Amino acid sequence: MASQSKNKSQKRRAIETVSQEESLAPLLIISCVVLVAIVSVLWWRPWKTRSHSGAIQVNSRTGIAKDDATIFAGYGGSASCRDCHPNEYQRWQDSHHGLAERKVFPSADKDAFDPPRVIHHGSQTSEALDEHGRFDVVTMGPDGKKSFEVQRVIGVDPLEQFLVHGPGGRMQTLELAFDPNKKDWFDVYGSEDRQVGEWGHWTGRGMTWNAMCAACHNTRLRKNYDEHADAYHTTMAEMSVACEACHGPMKSHAQWQQQYKNTKQKEPARHRPSADKILDTCGSCHARRGDLTGDFVPGDAFFDHYTLNGVDDTDLFYPDGQVRDEDYEFSAFLGSKMHAAGVRCTDCHDVHSGKTNLPGNALCMRCHLGTFPKAPIINPALHTFHKLDSTGSQCINCHMPVTTYMQRHGRHDHGFTIPDPLLTREAGIPNACNRCHKDKETDWALAAADKWYGKKLDRPSRSRALTIAAGRRGAESSQAALLALLNDSAQTFYWKSAFVRLLGRWVGEPAVTTALLKQTRHEHPMVRENATMALGPLAARPDVAKALAALLNDPSRNVRIAAAHALGASVDPSAPAAKEFLECLNQQADQPTGQLQLAMTAASRHDENGAIYHIEKALQWDPRSAPLRREAAVLYGQLNRPATALSQIEEACRLDPKNAEYQFLRGLAATEARHPEQAIIALEQAVRLDPHYARAWYNLAMMRQSTGQADAAMAAFRNAELADPKDADIPYALAVMLTQMNRPDEARKAVQRSLQIRPDYPAAKELLRNLGP
After folding, report:
1. Does 263 score more than 90 pLDDT?
2. Are 247 and 254 in contact (CB under 8 A)?
3. What region does 305 belong to: left with phi over 0, alpha with psi -120 to 50, or beta?
4. Which among 560, 604, 559 has a CA at the least distance from the CA of 42?
5. What gap in Å lies between CA 629 and CA 647, rounded to an integer?
6. Which residues on neighbouring strands pair with residue 411, listed in sequence order?
7. Closest by alpha carbon to 178, among 158, 164, 192, 163?
8. Strand 184-187 relative to strand 64-66, pairing
9. What confidence score (pLDDT) does residue 183 get?
10. Does residue 50 have a pLDDT over 90?
C-alpha cells in the first residue's frame, strides 16, 4: 500500500508542474482532416452540427443553444478550490478521480518505458520504449506495425492505459496497459488476440477515447462529433475527474470567496445536493448505460440523461442481480437491499478520496449492530461460520464478491447479494462460497449452506432469481410468476423494470398488455421507460397509442425519448419529444449501434434510402459483429429485400456458427428468398443447436410439409409440441396437415389439443366443426 501511495504522489507532483493556466484551459483536440460533404438522407434531421469548438448544444425543451465557450465560462478549475478547501483538495488529488486522466510526464512514466519492454500478446509482439524522452509503443496499427507516441494516461492503479493520436481528432486507447505495481505490460483483452478491423481492436471505434472513455475520465466533456466528416472536436472544462465534475461549475463561488471572504458579507445561498442527487452524479459514470444527451451536469436527474442497463433477457447481469459483464456499480446497487433501505454512496465512501469511511467489517457493523433501524442485527461470530478475522469472515467477501475486468482490475459487486449455491445448481448463477473454495463442487457448498442456514436461504430473492432465469429461457410458466412479482409491492422499481422487460416477450397476451399499460404510470422513470419499450410492438393499437402519446410529455427525458421511439412516424417531427429522440440518435451516431438506430428509425418512416445508408455505414464500421449482421438481416427483410437479408444472416451464422437463433432466422430468410432446401438445412441446424427451440421445429415442420416430406414434417411437429406444449398454433398446424392427408381421426385429436390450450381459437373451432364428431 505504501508503494502505491508513493507512486500516486509522484504522478501528482509531475502533474502539478503544468502551469495553472494550462491546466484550466479547455482542451481542444485539433487535427487536419479533409471535410467531405455528405448530404444526409434523413429528412427529419432538425439541425446541422457545427464542426469546430463552438459546436452548438440544442436543448429542445427550451430552444436554448449553448456553445462550448459559454458553458466553460462557469468553470474555475480545481486549483481555485485548493486554498479554501485544503483538506478536501489533499484527499482528492491522489485519488483515482484526481488521477483519472493526465498528460504523460517523464518523471511519472519513465519506469513503464525504460528499460524497453517486449510484450507478447496473442499472435502479436509489441514494444514499449523511451525514445530520448518520447515514450513510444510499437504495435500493429491500421497500416501495419508502427511506432505510436503516447500522449496521455488514463487510470492509475491497478493499471494504466495510454492514449495515442488517431485520425479525425480521435484519440485511441491502446489495448496494451501497464501494471504500476507489478511493473509489467499486458493486454487488457487477455488471450482474445484482437486484430485490426475489429470494432474492439485498439484502432477501432470501440477504443476511441472521445466516445468510450473521455466523458468519465474528465470534467464536463463535450464530444462534439461531426457526423458528416466523421471527426471529433472534443473539448472539456478540465482534464481528470476534477472538483467541478461532481460539484458543477463553481467559478462564481470561487470569485465571490476571493472578493468577500474576509468580510461579514454572506454569500448567496447555494443549493446543496441531496444524497439521491449525489447518487445520480456517481451513477453518471459508474453505470452501464446509454447516453441520451452527452451533457450531464451535477444536480441533474440521472434518467434525464441516461438509459440504464439492468437485469433483463440478456446476460449482462446474472438473474439474481450480480454483475456478469463489465457493468460497474450503479445498477447492481439500485437492485440491492442497501439501496432500498436508504443507504447511499456517501454513507460508505469518502466523496473526495473515494476510500471507504471505515476499514473492513467495521464499516458494515456500524449499521448492523442495531444502530440503523432497517438493518438486521448481526453477530459475526454466529453469522459467518468462519474463524473471526479470517478471509471467510469478511463481509465483503461473501456479499460483495470480486470480478476481475481488464485482466487486473478486481471490482466488488455492489448488489450485496446473498451467496446461494442452489442458484448455481439450478440457474448457473455464481455464489461466493465456490468463488473462494474453487476446489469444491457446488453440492459441497449447498450442503454447507443448508446445514448452517436451513430454510433461511429459501427467501423471496431466491424465487425471484429462478423466475427471471425461467423468463430468460422463454418458459411459459414464468409469465404468471413474472406478473405476480410485478404486482408485489415489496419489489423495488429496479426489479419491476426487469419484470417488465422480460414480459415484453408476451406483450400480445391480454394480461401482459394490461399489466404493462399499468406500469407506464409507475412512479419511477426506469419502470415507465421499460414498459414503454415493451409496448412498442403494439403501438398501432388505439389504447396503447393513447398511453404512449401521454408519455411524450413525461417529466423524465428517458421516458419521452422511449415514447417517441415507440410511436415512430406517428409523432410530429416538430414535437419536443421527437426532437429529443433525434438529438439522442445524433449523440450516438459515431458508433455502429447508433447508425443501426438511425437505420431503424428511417425504416419506420418509410425512408428506404435512409435506412440503407445508415445500416451500410454501421456494417462498414463493425463488419465482424454477428449481432449487427442479424439486425441488418431483419431490417432488409422489412425493406422487402430478401436476397440481401439472407446474405446478412448467413454472414452472422458464419461469425457465430453455434447460435441457434441465427440459424432459425437464416431459415426464415431462405424461405422468403424462395430457397426451401436452404431453409430446411438452416432450421435443422437450429434444432440441432437447441433441441428445445419450439418455433424452429414448427417452421421446420412447415417447410418439410411444403416440400412433400410428410413423415419428417410430422416428426418435427411432435418435437415442437414437446418443446412448447402451451403453443396452440403447433397442434393446430399439425391438424391442418393431417386433414390434408385425409387422416381425420389424428387431425381431430390434434385440433382438440389446440383448443385445450386456447379454447377461443377461432380457426381451430372451425376446423373441428368441419371434421365432425
Report:
1. no
2. no
3. alpha
4. 604
5. 9
6. 403
7. 158
8. unpaired
9. 96
10. no
Banded pLDDT at 739 (limits 50, 70, 90): very high
Distance CA 500, CA 486 (A): 8
Rounded-to-10 torsion of CA 747, 750, 752, 753: 180
Please state which of the ranges 173-187, 287-301, 463-477 shows the lowest mean pLDDT. 463-477
- Strands 409-412 vs 402-405: parallel, antiparallel or unpaired: antiparallel
- Residue 455 in grid coordinates: 430454510
Instruction: Report d(CA 511, CA 606) in Å as an integer.
Output: 32
User: 634: closest CA among 658, 609, 679, 599?
Assistant: 599
Residue 178 grid coordinates:
501497464
Sketch the domain layout of the chain as residue ranges: 2-261, 278-418
Give the bridge partners for 152, in sequence order.
103, 163
Q: How far apart are CA 55 and CA 51, in angstroms?
A: 6
Whether 424 contacts 431, CB under 8 Å: yes
Contact 436, 397 (CB under 8 A): yes
Query: Within 10 A of 676 (CB to CB), how many other CB atoms are there?
Result: 15
Name the DSSP class of 328. B
The number of residues in the chain equals 773
Cα–Cα dist 135/42, whole Å: 44
Q: Is 475 exposed, middle or buried (0-12, 13-18, 19+ CB in 10 A)?
A: middle
Res 642 pLDDT > 50:
yes
Of 530, 549, 531, the residue nearest 540 (C-alpha): 549
**Alpha helix stretches (DSSP H) within 165-247:** 209-212, 214-217, 243-247
First to last CA, the chain: 84
DSSP-assigned letter for residue 149: E
One-letter amino acid at 670 equals A
Grid coordinates given for 1: 500500500
30 Cβ contact partners less than 8 Å away, ≥ 6 residues apart: 169, 233
Average pLDDT over residues 706-728: 93
Cα–Cα distance measured from residue 575 to residue 562, given in angstroms and rounded to the nearest whole number: 14
> Any residues with CB less than 8 A from the CB of 441 and at least 6 apart, and which?
434
Residue type at 379? N
Residue 268 buriedness (CB in 10 A; 0-12 / 13-18 / 19+): exposed
Grid cell, residue 683, equals: 432450421
Who's near 583: CB < 8 A, 6+ residues apart? 46, 58, 60, 293
Residue 262 is inside which H or E element, if any? none
* 212-229 residue pLDDT tens: 999 999 999 999 999 999
Given a cut of 60, whether residue 41 has pLDDT beyond it is no
Burial-class residue 383 by CB neighbours within 10 Å (0-12, 13-18, 19+).
middle
Q: Residue 566: is its pLDDT beyond 50?
A: yes
211 beta partners:
none
CA atoms within 13 A on the CB side of 709: 14
Torsion of the alpha carbons at 485, 489, 495 and 501, rounded to the nearest 10: 60
Beta-ladder partners of 38: none
Task: Let me know: does 494 contact 333? Beta carbons within 8 Å.
Answer: no
pLDDT digit string (tens) for 649-671?
Answer: 999 999 999 999 999 999 999 99
- If you average pLDDT over every residue of the chain, what do you get? 90
Question: Among 126, 119, 212, which Cα is nearest to 171's?
Answer: 212
Residue 86 and residue 224: Cα distance in Å, rounded? 34
Alpha-carbon distance 323 to 311, whole Å? 9
Helix, strand, or coil (residue 102) = strand
Between CA 764 and CA 596 the distance in angstroms is: 40
Question: How many whole angstroms separate alpha carbon 378 and alpha carbon 374?
Answer: 12
Listed residue (522, 474, 517, 472) closest to 497, CA to CA: 522
Q: Phi-psi bin for 406: left (phi > 0), alpha (psi -120 to 50), beta?
A: left
Helix (H, G, I), strand (E, B) or coil at 636: helix
- Measured CA to CA, the distance from residue 94 to residue 102 in angstroms comes to 12
DSSP assignment, residue 240? S
